[in-house]
């Protein structure tokens, strides 16, 4: 039987790339979105439509989704993964970095929801997986704006789940701890980056994007009437 369409934002690196490979392995056609479309195409996955989409652009995101659906059918799963982490001290950070994180980490997630929620509700099925963070559960030094955006992802997901539950649409929040990806490279302060690397070294390294992809696949493969609402996944030695 043909598998349904899975849409992944931020599939050009890290967790999004690992989930793209995992979902492809399971036989799903894919819509892969990111700004670096050449990295999406380089994955060379079968039945994968790759589109250069900035998740802050609501209309372009929706158009790409419509194009993928005309090719592969309804979206059964949206993985709202695109994100930006620019760490900084609250009293020192350039507020432009706050703006960028709010735009991508919150509004980008809302834009993904906008593109699929109405249709999933109407056909009474589907899964929306929002990638938050342990930084969406507790505070960390130098994480003020980033934590704020990830607390928002938790909050909007909780509400969305209640709104869509009666229509059998699942809403899942994934909250990873530190994962070895390009995420830290967005931070401009070398002092903060060095401290973060030392923190990771201190726990003997962190988990991989493939670890998170495996968890996402597990959540998605449950029967539609089983909703794993939230998964918090960290390295065993991560205590914060
Ligand atoms: N790594 C970690 O320690 C943790 C990560 N997370 C979350 O996981 C998610 C994935 O991050 P991770 O894989 O680690 O980091 P990466 O930096 O490797 O990946 C981020 C992805 O987001 C995409 N992206 C960023 N901005 C935009 C945008 N405006 N429009 C479209 N795509 C965008 C990037 O693509 P491109 O640049 O090509 O547009 C890239 O594919 C994020 O939401 C992050 O907050 C949560 C907890 C821990
Ligand atoms: O989301 C990022 C990981 S951490 O800095 O909160 O552990």
From TrEMBL:
Pathway: Organosulfur degradation. It comes from the Bacteria. InterPro entries: KR_dom (IPR057326), NAD(P)-bd_dom_sf (IPR036291), Sc_DH/Rdtase_CS (IPR020904), SDR_fam (IPR002347). Keywords: Oxidoreductase. SMART domains: PKS_KR. One of its GO terms (molecular function) is oxidoreductase activity, acting on the CH-OH group of donors, NAD or NADP as acceptor. PROSITE patterns: ADH_SHORT. It catalyses: 2-hydroxyethane-1-sulfonate + NADP(+) = sulfoacetaldehyde + NADPH + H(+). Its EC number is 1.1.1.313. Pfam families: adh_short. Homodimer and heterotetramer. PANTHER family: DEHYDROGENASE/REDUCTASE SDR FAMILY MEMBER 11, DEHYDROGENASE_REDUCTASE SDR FAMILY MEMBER 11. This is sulfoacetaldehyde reductase (NADPH). It comes from Endozoicomonas elysicola.
């Amino acid at each position: 039987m043909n598998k349904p369409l899975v849409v992944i934002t931020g599939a050009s690196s890290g967790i999004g790339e690992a989930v793209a490979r995992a979902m492809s392995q399971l036989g799903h056609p894919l819509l892969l979105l990111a700004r670096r479309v050449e990295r999406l195409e380089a994955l060379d996955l079968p039945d994968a439509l790759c589109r250069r989409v900035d998740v802050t652009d609501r209309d372009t995101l929706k158009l790409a989704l419509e194009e993928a659906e005309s090719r592969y059918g309804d979206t059964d799963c949206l993985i709202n993964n695109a994100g930006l982490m620019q760490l900084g001290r609250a009293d020192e950070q350039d507020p432009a970095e706050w703006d960028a994180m709010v735009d991508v980490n919150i509004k980008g997630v809302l834009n993904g929801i906008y593109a699929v929620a109405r249709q999933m509700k109407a056909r009474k099925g589907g899964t929306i997986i929002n990638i938050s963070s342990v930084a969406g559960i507790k505070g960390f030094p130098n994480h003020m704006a980033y934590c704020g955006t990830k607390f928002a992802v938790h909050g909007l997901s909780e509400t969305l789940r209640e709104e869509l539950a009666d229509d059998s649409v699942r809403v899942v929040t994934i909250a990873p701890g530190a994962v070895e990806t390009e995420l830290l490279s967005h931070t401009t302060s070398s002092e903060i980056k060095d401290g973060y690397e030392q923190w990771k070294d201190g726990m003997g390294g962190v988990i991989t994007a493939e670890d998170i992809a495996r968890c996402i696949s597990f959540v998605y493969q449950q029967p539609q009437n089983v909703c794993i609402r939230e998964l918090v996944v960290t390295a065993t030695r991560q205590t914060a």
